[in-house]
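Much of what follows relies on a compact textual record of a protein's fold. Here is one such record, which you should read through line by line:
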Amino acid sequence: MATMRGGRSVEAVPDKELLSRHASGDPHAFAELVQRHRDRMWAVALRTLGDQEEAADALQDAFLSAYRAAGRFRGDAAVTTWLHRIVVNACLDRVRRRSIRPVVPMGDDATLDSVAPKNTDPTSAHELSLDVSQALRRIPFEQRAALVLVDMMGYAVDDAATILEVPPGTIKSRCARGRARLAPLLGHLRNQGRGPGVESAEEGGGTPA
């Protein structure tokens, strides 16, 4: 049964109200926000950094920053957008401080979609996830963050632009360049996944705008 506070179940309290309650001194409100969104924020941190220890540290930093900054939340965006922005910035801070992975120059004529095989069994899917995570760590952070939000988390370009605080056109450009850089790193997956539903860039996939 849902926990009741003030006559309303915790699940029924909007995110913005929980954040406002936290800023006003409610000792339980922020913990509820963390519980609601931790899994998705963890996915963003892990896919962005590609390292569990680094991702855990970044997520801890992000939630601490959010805890302290709640009173400055203006309410002009969704709380989830605000949290995503803080998590991405925490990841960027760790990349800048520790140089987690050097940038590797790549070409620009293929897409991520074209090298991702479909209908894989669970073992192959796990191996694919590892391959993609390792490849993501080898492209520039700005492109990686855009790809994680748009291609892996399913955000619309406009929403990703809001989270990363850049124009939508910049998100499109970063995604296109990021997919192009990933393609040579994941070319072996295209060969393994050749079959129905898998289209190579050379066969018409192209680099999206």
Observations:
- Residues 8-98 form a domain with the Rna Polymerase Sigma Factor; Chain: A fold (CATH 1.10.1740.10).
- The chain has two domains: 8-98, 112-203.
- The longest helix spans residues 29-49.
- Strands lie at 4-5, 8-9.
